[in-house]
Specification:
The complex is a heterodimer.
Chain A: H1 2-11, H2 14-40, H3 47-78, H4 85-106, H5 114-141, H6 150-171, E1 176-177, E2 187-190, E3 193-196, H7 197-219, H8 221-231, H9 233-238, H10 243-269, E4 271-272, H11 278-291, H12 296-318, H13 330-344
Antiparallel strand pairs in A: 1-4, 2-3
Helix pairs in contact in A: 2-12, 3-7, 3-8, 3-10, 3-11, 3-12, 4-5, 4-6, 4-10, 4-11, 5-10, 7-8, 7-10, 8-10, 11-12, 11-13, 12-13
Chain B: H1 9-29, H2 31-34, E1 39-41, E2 45-46, H3 47-66, H4 72-86, H5 88-100, H6 102-105, H7 111-117, H8 126-145, H9 148-166, H10 168-175, H11 179-188, H12 196-226, H13 229-281, H14 290-304, H15 316-335, H16 343-362, H17 367-370, E3 382-384, E4 387-389, H18 392-414, H19 417-427, H20 429-434, H21 439-465, H22 475-488, H23 493-509, H24 513-531, H25 540-546, H26 548-561
Antiparallel strand pairs in B: 1-2, 3-4
Helix pairs in contact in B: 1-3, 1-4, 1-5, 3-4, 3-8, 4-8, 9-12, 13-18, 13-21, 13-22, 13-23, 14-15, 14-16, 14-21, 15-21, 18-21, 19-21, 22-23, 22-24, 23-24
The chains are: A mainly alpha, B mainly alpha.
Amino acid sequence: MIENLRKRLRNLSALDVTLWIFRLFIIVIVIWGIIGTVSRNPLNMGAAQWRDLIVAGLAQGSLYALIALGYTMVYGVLLMINFSHGEFFMAGIFTATVFVAIPLDQAGLWNRYPLPSLLLVGLVSMATSMGVAVLTERVAYRPLRRAPRLVPLITAIGASFFWQYFFRGLYGSGITAFPTVQALEGQWTVVGFQIGKAQVAVMIASLILLVALYTFVMRTKTGRAMRAVSENKDVAALMGIDVDRIIVITFAVGAAMAGAAGVLYGLLYRQVHFFMGFVPGIKAFTAAVLGGIGSVPGAALGGLFLGLFEAIAPNLVLGGLGIPGTNQLKDVVAFTMLVLILMFRPQGLLGERLGRHKA
Amino acid sequence: MATKTRFNGGELVRFGLFATIVTALLAAVGLVTTFGERDIIGGVLSVGSIFLFGVAVGAAFLLTRRNSGAPWAIRLVGGTLLGLFTSILPLLIVLLAEPLGLRRFLPNISPDLIAIMTFGQGVAGLPILVLIFAVAGLLGAVLALLSASVRRPLFAGLLVVFVVGLLSETIILSWGNQGLGLAIRRVAFAARGLSPLGALLLFLLVAGINALWNWRSGWVRERIGALPPAPRQGLRWGGIALGILVLLFLPVLLRSYLTEVINNVGLYILMGLGLNIVVGFAGLLDLGYVAFYAIGAYTMGILTSTGRLGLAGLTWWEALPIAVLMAITAGVILGVPVLRMRGDYLAIVTLGFGEIIRILATSDFLAPLTGGPQGVLQIPNVPFFGMSLIKPEHLYYLILAGCLLAFFVSWRLRDSRMGRQWMAMREDEDVAEAMGINLVKTKLLAFATGAAFSGLSGTILAAKLNSVFPHSMSLYVSINVLCLIIIGGMGSLPGVIVGALLLIGLPELLREFAEYRMLMYGVLLILIMLSRPEGFWPSEVAKRELHAREEVAVTGNANTAG
């Protein structure tokens, strides 16, 4: 026992010690902040405000979850971070807003038939996202399957900026308003809780989509092929699976989820613009890593957790430390979380430990 | 392939579809309109028209080359048909823009665009449009049919005319106002762009020189090769001396405005050399490189500012070591958490770091130190033996000194033990570790060196602008630097300079670029990675590696043939 401990101590490198100190430092800060908030309540927040934050966080988190699916699935089959996934999300809803939602609204049909209108917007959004994703895969990723890993990553960054500025040129650089759905205005009271209708709709829609995707991946033949490809491409090919086709399908399905998430984003924030995919993209990637990249339920869980964390942590932790303007630091909290996960638990909440070739 | 005599019709349709879609998108994105004002040859040819018709020329060129077995008349007809095919979607845009109210959806399908595409003549201009598309296709086909010895001077001439025409505004502003410059301007330049006569003269000149060079270059090389070693050394040193002389007198040559542009390029060269160590040598893809630039600039600002936020009131030279040291420290601190991450994860985490630094600099939290969104103001100029470096011509020498230092350090590091360790790590971390390389030390040193160059660049920026703003520390700086080293060639030192001149210098001269800069960078990144991953000016190692397989294939074929 003691012998064992001594052995481990001897193997401890300076780097490990530094990382441990860093870990302790973070834990101390977090606890300090929470104690500060709980004991002094520096921001003067009541239960109602915390509840609103939680609900907003969950709605935001379900968006992250939907976008994170694309990252996780593509990473599963290609072991590559699809940097331009956030742009697939933007492309879908931007196009659907410009070509469907706004004309419908101007024709007066938007609020007369809200459900069919939203479904139509959703379909167009998903189809556009899928189209953009398939095109990107075909042009920028497929020819580079066997290239060094840095190469497809760089094309992914290039594709990301290309799509952003392509759509900026196409639809303009301003912020476009997503028409308001009057049926989803206001609030519902659920067991004494007041919850915004739009937020409820977003959460329900996300849940349905997540379940549908999970069923697709676990139950259908294509889903099984996808999982086989992510286990081992060569063996999957030997089993008669058309690997290229499965990869395209993976991109398309992931992008479809992102396209659907776009509609929910429109409902929540009521605006679209060319840059809207960037930050949600990175956040969703964080969510995918948090849940364990490669795992579908992990992405869902990671998304919800990140949304919640991001909504609460600035006020709960940073507020207690006496830091002003906590809401400006939301993104800092999310990025810090990404760094911490990658440092200390790269396999995420639900993921298996990644082999060294994967990490 | 030579036995195939039939023209591939399916290919014609595919190329045509591609060309017409791309042309329509270029118009819809606004490139044709925005660049319509930028004349290459005054009143005849603008960059906008090149965007409009260039795709047809290029597609016809490729199509004709791919069907090299068919008779030449058929290939010419094929090219013309391709041009006609390309005109379909642009025609539809012109015809449908009004009735469908396309502008509501796509703001760039504006009356301006329609006017450009119909030559200001309404529907009557459409036949002209179709005709020009057909001629463009024919031109592409003709270019492909010419023999290489004719084509090379032709392309060289066209390229130079294009570049000179593109930059004509700057050229006129800088040199065209007196003496010889004014005389040349009267003949060769129009109000905007080159004059037709000037373009023709320039074209003939360059094409002639190129043809002459193609004809005699073998002879010149032979003569140089035949020289005894001593004069050859002399020739080399003479070249270097000439280079240094040009660098020293560049501001005199370039005048104020262009020197300012070169200064900006210089700052990016400095950063590029730093990132080149991190990405090019050590293979660590860092997307948060702007963080060190920001730290260098802010440290310099806070230490030297005479305004509200100034802490110490130091001079630039006194604060320089502190600021660079801060950047290095930041490099090491941010380097530690990512030591065990690779490739993709490293990229996204460093991107996060860059954003964290920027958000922190803007936030209320650090506002007492960094001034929040207003930034740090009233930063004094660089004092230098009693005078202060304020004009771009003065700052040029400071930046030049920085660049030369960074260049020298990079150059010496590349061939040093450290450099070889970095490259070993880039190729394979596990193997490098097995060979006894201390990965922790090697990685941290790469981060630290890169951060030092970037921090130095930041300190100069602070003194150059006399202020530091958080919004100039955006992700785009990191992406710009990354693009320029990739386009120049990863790991290649001259590549950094070429990349910076192309990617930073050119957009500064052409204000239309501002909007489409990132669009073009995106396309460039993808194209470079697909077709020429070693960049425009590759390092020797990259060239050897990336083309090793081709060479093997070639020698393999030679062997089987033998």
